[in-house]
Each structure stands twice: as C-alpha cells, then as structure tokens.
C-alpha cells in the first residue's frame, strides 16, 4: 500500500506506514521535456531501509547529498556510500538503500527511461 501525506513541505511515501522515508518530487517527465522520468529528493530516517527493487523499468542516478549509508544489491557485497557518492543503476537493476543508526541519509535521484524505450519515442521537445 502507498500512502502519501505532506510534512515539513516534503511528500512522505510509505510502503509500511513506518514514516521512515520522505520523498519530494522536484520534476516529472512532462515538466522536463526529456527522457527523464523524474528528479527527486529522498531522506531516509536513521536506521531505515528503502527498497528500490521492482523499479527495474528505469535507469537511475543516485547522488548522496548528506550522510553515510549502504546500497545493498542481492547477491553482492554492500556498497558503502558517503556524501558526494554517485551510484548508477542500469535498466533492470535494483536494490535497497540503508541509512545507518543515528544519522539520516539524504539523496537526489534522477530516473530516466532506458534507451530501449526512448529510442522508439518521437522527439520530445517543447513547443512554442
């Protein structure tokens, strides 16, 4: 279940009603006139996990704004991330983000259509 509400100007999205993640959309496809699906700000509460599996229909670039944490991909060693880290996820990839106990993790995420989809679309440009 997805439940959305606003708190401190952020849109909070919970899949377990725990309140451990804040997500704010900074731009969506129609606003950007590009192959971009969305550009979002994400804040994970200390000790929380954000499950990104199931979003394999897009490509993503995750930039760590503040904090330390880990990106966990099934079958692989945890990837430690720090302020300034960039994690690129190709089409079909996915995993989980984990914030450490005692400190939040703040991220920017740019979600893009995979090339296999965007190359079949007509040109996307603003009109006058």
Automatic annotation (TrEMBL):
SUPFAM superfamilies for the chain: RmlC-like cupins (SSF51182)
Matches recorded under Gene3D superfamilies: Jelly Rolls
InterPro entries listed in its UniProt record: RmlC-like_jellyroll (IPR014710), RmlC_Cupin_sf (IPR011051)
Highest taxon of source: Bacteria
Name of the featured protein: Cupin 2 conserved barrel domain-containing protein
Organism: Amycolatopsis coloradensis
């Amino acid at each position: 279940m997805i439940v959305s509400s606003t708190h401190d100007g952020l849109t909070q999205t919970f899949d377990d009603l725990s309140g451990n993640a804040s997500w704010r959309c900074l731009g969506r496809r129609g606003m950007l006139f590009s192959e971009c699906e969305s550009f979002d700000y994400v804040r994970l509460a200390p000790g929380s996990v954000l499950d990104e599996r199931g979003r394999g229909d897009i490509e993503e670039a995750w930039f760590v704004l503040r904090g330390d944490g880990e990106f966990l991909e099934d079958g692989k060693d945890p990837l430690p991330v720090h302020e300034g880290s960039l994690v690129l996820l190709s089409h079909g990839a996915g995993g989980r983000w984990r914030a450490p106990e005692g400190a939040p993790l703040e991220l920017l995420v740019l979600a893009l259509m995979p090339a296999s989809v965007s190359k079949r679309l007509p040109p996307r440009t603003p009109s006058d």
